[in-house]
């Protein structure tokens, strides 16, 4: 390509990105860093506060005035529910279309057993608790994100674990039975690539002082609108994979056969969260570029919007208005991912994106 054509292509790209920035608007500026976000059918905005910043509160509701209120609030948590709702470390959460908010407690603060908790946001009552003890989880599990399939009464959980033992966890909501599948499969383990933001690689300081550049396995995970296909991939990876939920739900399928059913769908950047609209577009948090990208039905990836406010876009959720909500938490500047040095400063953002096509609650 000649330099004239390269320059023209660059100008076109910048113009397209600038125009796409109009798709993005601020819902709230926060003093505390959010983790994941979900929006209920009656438009409650529920967020985890990211455990890497060691917040006192685990889960909050974003009120209309921008304040954060504990979720479930104190009135709802009275009585017997209190015993079940003692969250240790919640990151992944998702409302389904019935208003049940599913919260994934990874138990990493105090080494408690991970659990999946369903809370009915309409009635303010506990809906379900499913514990995820070994061998469903491993010693180094970090049950991170989830996709809720109420069509077939299942939940699919991403567990990056230690990388080589990354896996998906399949939970049957009717029986409470859970299975660990695709352990160590190429679709869930990380690639040996660095995450670099603003020219600096993400680094973790080990207890002995050694500095390492992390490699994180399966993290982004989402269902299509029919709950037919589950899309997922390693955070540190360039491929988006998918598998039919009918195969995941079939406990009679051998590990070898299940692995053969996995399909590589397309390209992706290093990413934390994904969501899928009603037209099948997959929205991707593009961490390196401070962007949100999209994978279309052909599997091709492109940047949709790039913005300085998108400093570590973590998770997505479609609201009842059809818009796509996300959070930006500057996680690369947290002490945990910045070699022990805390440089993140507020504001942190809750943002709303005008998608290419509407999506539905729970996606």
Task: Describe the structure in your own words.
The protein has 363 residues and is mainly beta. The protein is 9% helix and 38% strand. The protein contains four helices and 28 strands. The strands form eight sheets. The protein has a four-stranded antiparallel β-sheet with strand order 1-28-27-26, with no helix packed on it. A four-stranded antiparallel β-sheet has the order 2-3-4-5, with no helix packed on it. Strands 6-7-8-9 form a four-stranded antiparallel β-sheet, with no helix packed on it. The termini are far apart. The model is unreliable at 1-18 and 74-84 (pLDDT under 50).
Offer a few descriptive terms.
363 residues, mainly beta, four-stranded antiparallel beta sheet, 4 helices, globular, disordered N terminus
Structure summarized in a few sentences:
By secondary structure, the chain is mainly beta.
Spell out the blueprint of helices and strands.
Elements: H1 3-20, E1 24-30, E2 34-39, E3 45-49, E4 59-62, E5 68-70, H2 81-84, E6 90-95, E7 100-105, E8 115-120, E9 125-131, E10 145-149, E11 154-159, E12 167-172, E13 178-181, E14 196-197, E15 200-201, E16 204-205, E17 211-212, E18 218-223, E19 229-234, E20 239-244, H3 245-249, H4 255-260, E21 263-267, E22 274-276, E23 282-286, E24 291-295, E25 301-306, E26 313-318, E27 324-328, E28 348-353
């Amino acid at each position: 390509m000649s330099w004239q054509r390269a320059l023209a292509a660059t100008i076109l790209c910048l113009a397209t990105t600038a125009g796409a920035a109009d798709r993005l608007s601020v819902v709230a500026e926060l003093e505390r860093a959010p983790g994941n976000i979900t929006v209920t059918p009656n438009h409650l905005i529920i967020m985890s506060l990211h455990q890497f910043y060691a917040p006192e509160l685990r889960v909050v509701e974003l009120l209309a005035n921008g304040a954060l209120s504990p979720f479930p609030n104190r009135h709802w948590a009275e009585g017997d529910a209190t015993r079940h709702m003692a969250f240790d470390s919640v990151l992944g959460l998702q409302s389904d279309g019935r208003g049940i908010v599913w919260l994934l407690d990874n138990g990493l603060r105090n080494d408690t057993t991970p659990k999946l908790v369903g809370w009915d946001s309409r009635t303010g009552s506990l809906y379900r608790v499913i514990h995820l003890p070994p061998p469903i989880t491993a010693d180094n599990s970090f049950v991170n994100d989830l996709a809720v399939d109420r069509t077939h009464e299942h939940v699919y959980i991403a567990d990056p674990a230690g990388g080589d033992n990354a896996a998906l966890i399949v939970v049957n909501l009717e029986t409470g039975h859970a299975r660990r599948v695709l352990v160590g499969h190429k679709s869930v383990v990380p690639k040996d690539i660095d995450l670099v933001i603003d020219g600096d690689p993400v680094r973790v300081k080990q207890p002995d002082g050694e500095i390492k550049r992390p490699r994180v396995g399966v993290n982004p995970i989402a269902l299509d609108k029919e709950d037919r296909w589950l899309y997922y991939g390693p955070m540190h990876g360039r491929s988006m994979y998918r598998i039919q939920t009918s195969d995941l739900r079939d406990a009679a399928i051998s590990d070898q056969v299940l692995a053969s059913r996995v399909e590589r769908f397309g390209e992706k950047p290093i990413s934390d969260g994904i969501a899928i609209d009603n037209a099948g577009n997959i929205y991707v948090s593009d961490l390196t570029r401070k962007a949100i990208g999209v994978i279309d039905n052909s599997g091709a990836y492109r940047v949709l919007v790039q913005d300085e406010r998108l400093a570590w876009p973590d998770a997505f959720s479609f609201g009842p208005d059809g818009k796509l909500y996300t959070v930006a938490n500057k996680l690369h500047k947290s002490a945990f991912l910045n070699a022990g040095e805390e440089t993140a400063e507020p504001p942190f953002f809750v943002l709303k994106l005008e998608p290419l096509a509407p999506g539905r609650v729970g996606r």
